[in-house]
Amino acid sequence: MLERKFHRPDAGLRTDGAEISGYASVFGLVDRGGDVVAKGAYTACLERLMAKGGSVRMLWQHDPNQPIGVWDELREDDHGLWVKGRLLESVDKGREAAALVQAGALDGLSIGYRTVRAAKDGKGRRILHEVDLWEVSLVTFPMLPDATVQAKSHDPADAFVQALRRAGQLLTQA
């Protein structure tokens, strides 16, 4: 059975090539469904994908009939599952997604996966220890709302300026 987890990532976007990047999943956080993704949950899946040259699909709102781009990089680090890809503006929904992200109307990422190995903890939460990742979608309502798409730009230099602004905001909050 395919399951989905939603997350709002810190990501950058620029159009044509429409590059986006960020965390599609963050380890250790309880989502609205009571699940927690454990560090290492994606390792086996990513290794299998790399070995066979496979890919994880980029979809619009989890609709398998609406691919909107390609994920060029997926990696697991200490924080979570980081993704980087390109929205395809030659596809109607890809162009629409780029415009919505650019306007700030859409800022969520969500994963579609099959649970391979999970366990309940003493607090009623399901801890996902291993998942088979099928897709990462751009979505309106993420299940894990702790991060958002931040930098939105047609020009890579604008994305850099947005990143500097975010860094300044973080410094003023510290």
UniProtKB/TrEMBL annotation:
This is Phage prohead protease HK97 family. The keyword Membrane does not apply. Pfam families: Peptidase_S78. It comes from Donghicola eburneus. InterPro entries: Peptidase_S78_dom, Prohead_protease. It comes from the Bacteria. Residues 16-154 form the Prohead serine protease domain. GO terms for molecular function: peptidase activity. One of its GO terms (biological process) is proteolysis.
